[in-house]
């Protein structure tokens, strides 16, 4: 059974880096697991290897989430695919391989899932090259209603909007630690669809301003549904959580899954 959606068809729960509380983050296995528990949307990170291949990865290096070390920018696809990116989490996942963007997009289509694709611009990396590589692939693979592209990097988001000027075809999310006073100016300039804010730093007044202005509002990364409960009343549309199953019985009244997302 799928988790709830808002009346506007927005997911109430998005699995952060896949089901990362229980599986190695940003892997094909973590995305499959999210689907298995009924979570139809995932948030994943994309960046480029040194040879220009887009892969699903968060960090600037590989030490934290693999059996090796070094910078992602120094790896080509052959070397990246030789890494074990599951054993660090548990021996049960030993042998998991780094996913390419192409592989992930294919899986998302196979599972009919939506994705919040974060353009991850780590220190020293070129946001324009990343955007120019990733956005055409994502647009070609997924329908608009199953794709939101977000980033902390404004240059990357501006470049994404330049690739696709139609905000209905490419929905962009401003990813923020907290919403600055000029948030509305930035959202309007970008023709943004949504704002993605650290739930610990979101204030009720700002949340209501965002919703009154007509933007979708997502919060990252709450994992305590009871502590988060007051923020639903502020108008928050959905949570990006490491363990979305925790929220299953702590969601506001919502619409059922939109018909357009259930069509085969």
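^ structure tokens above, recovered residues below v
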């Amino acid at each position: 059974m799928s988790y709830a959606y808002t009346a506007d068809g927005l997911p109430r729960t998005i699995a952060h880096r896949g089901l990362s509380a229980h599986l190695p983050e940003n892997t094909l296995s973590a995305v499959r697991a999210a689907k298995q528990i009924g979570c139809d949307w995932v948030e994943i990170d994309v960046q480029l290897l040194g040879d220009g291949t887009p892969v699903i990865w968060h960090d600037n290096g590989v030490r934290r989430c693999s059996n090796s070390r070094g910078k992602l920018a120094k790896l080509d696809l052959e070397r990246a695919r030789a890494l074990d990116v599951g054993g660090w989490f548990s021996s049960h996942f030993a042998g998991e391989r780094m996913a390419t963007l192409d592989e992930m997009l294919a899986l998302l289509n196979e599972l009919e899932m939506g994705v919040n694709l974060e353009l991850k611009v780590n220190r020293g990396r070129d946001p324009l090259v990343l955007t120019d590589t990733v956005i055409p692939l994502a647009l070609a693979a997924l329908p608009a209603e199953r794709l939101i592209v977000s980033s902390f990097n404004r240059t990357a988001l501006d470049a994404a909007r330049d690739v696709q000027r139609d905000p209905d075809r490419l929905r962009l999310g401003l990813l923020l630690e907290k919403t600055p006073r000029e948030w509305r100016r930035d959202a309007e300039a970008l023709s943004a669809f949504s704002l993605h804010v650290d739930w610990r730093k979101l204030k009720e007044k700002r949340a209501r301003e965002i919703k009154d202005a007509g933007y979708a509002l997502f919060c990252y990364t709450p994992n305590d549904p009871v502590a988060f409960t007051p923020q639903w009343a502020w108008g928050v549309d959905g949570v990006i959580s490491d363990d979305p199953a925790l929220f299953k019985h702590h969601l506001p009244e919502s619409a059922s899954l939109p018909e357009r997302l259930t069509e085969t």
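The chain has one domain: 13-262.
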